[in-house]
Amino acid sequence: MASGKIVRPRMTHTLTRKGMTKSEARSTPESLCYLRVVSPAAASDWVRDNVLTYWPDVRFSYIIFNKGVAQYIVPAMRNIYRALSAAGPRDKIKVSTSVQYGIMGESYPPSIDEFSSQVWSVMGPIVEFLRSMGAPLLVNVYPHFSHNIDLDYAQFTAPDIVVVDGYNGLEYHNMFDAMVDAVYVVLDRVGAGNVGVVVSETG
User: Fold this and answer.
1) pLDDT tens across 137-182, in order?
2) Number of domains in the chain
3) How would you list the strands of the sheet with 197-202, edge to edge?
4) Which family does it belong to (predicted)?
5) Using the 8-state DSSP alphabet, how is residue 5 labeled?
6) CB atoms within 10 A of CB 92
7) Which listed site, 18, 19, 130, 200, has its alpha carbon 20 to 30 Å from 161?
């Protein structure tokens, strides 16, 4: 960002070069978190050049902030949301962020999950923005990254129930479901039960 230039999302241009229309696309610009430093006008320019130019032939599901300086994420998301609102497709394109599952603190069993205390100062404003805008939180969920976990439980191949949540009786055949449930639990716990969860990466 030293030059002040905003990077164009590669996916948008890949879709248009191939002539693909009416396709769901996610825009994941790496430098959007610095829009606050540039100006709200830069956000409007970015939306014009990278969204409106292709809309509605290319349908965007989300504009996702997945990298950048933490304190700029919410102001940047707000700038883009306002730019979308002014341009028209606000209700059709959600502005959100993608986070690692490591933001969770205690996540076993899922019903007692909570955000890690180290990240709450960042996640609190993000969750409040998503709650107020009706946008989902995108989470990278990787069961295989967990330690000391039964391989069948991680790979959806367990023939029987592996984990029973002792607090609510829910039964889990695979770790993926347990991890996603844990995210819903923590969102509900902080008053954001209306925030959906979208799995942005897994493996």
Assistant:
1) 999 998 877 766 788 888 888 899 988 988 888 899 999 999 999 9
2) 2
3) 23-27, 58-65, 94-100, 137-141, 197-202
4) Belongs to the glycosyl hydrolase 17 family.
5) P
6) 12
7) 200
